[in-house]
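Q: What structure does this chain adopt?
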Amino acid sequence: MRLVLLGAPGSGKGTQADLLKAELGIPHISTGDLLRAAVRAGTPLGLKAKAVMEAGQLVSDEIVLGMLEERLAQADAAAGFILDGYPRNLAQCAALETLLARLGQPIDVAIKLEVPSELIVERIAGRAAEQGRKDDTPETVRERLRVYAEQTEPVAGHFAQLGKLRVVDGVGELAEVSQRILGALPAGAPSAA
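A:
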């Protein structure tokens, strides 16, 4: 099962991906985690990324895609994977599809977690207060939601055109949302029966 999790910041993608990886027996791959691990390990791509980040710039799609390709080549990803946080825009989506076609591992399904914007603002504000983070103000969260709607929402539209998008209600208890996701997976998916 090759799965992309989509949803606005704070919709629960990372939490659900962690729950699903155990249920489906496939790795949860977060591009942010890949970047941090490559920088810590001092890999060639990690060193490139570190130099870019230290210069205050965004890591290029080319570097991220290279790290993703290295990760997908690992044995635990042979049976599938859960992508979280990537692709974030249509250019990344096209690059990902090209890479996966070359690897013979096309995406099976994209799951979009649907959560009302005001609930997301509440969730992130609550998390920020618990963690003592001052950068997650309601205003900054609303700006991130605006950027998501502008840049990432079209990715969901792309997967919908391919007939691969499933929209799942992301509101409720963690286990309830997980069950909704499992129920939305294509027939034949592990644990979806």
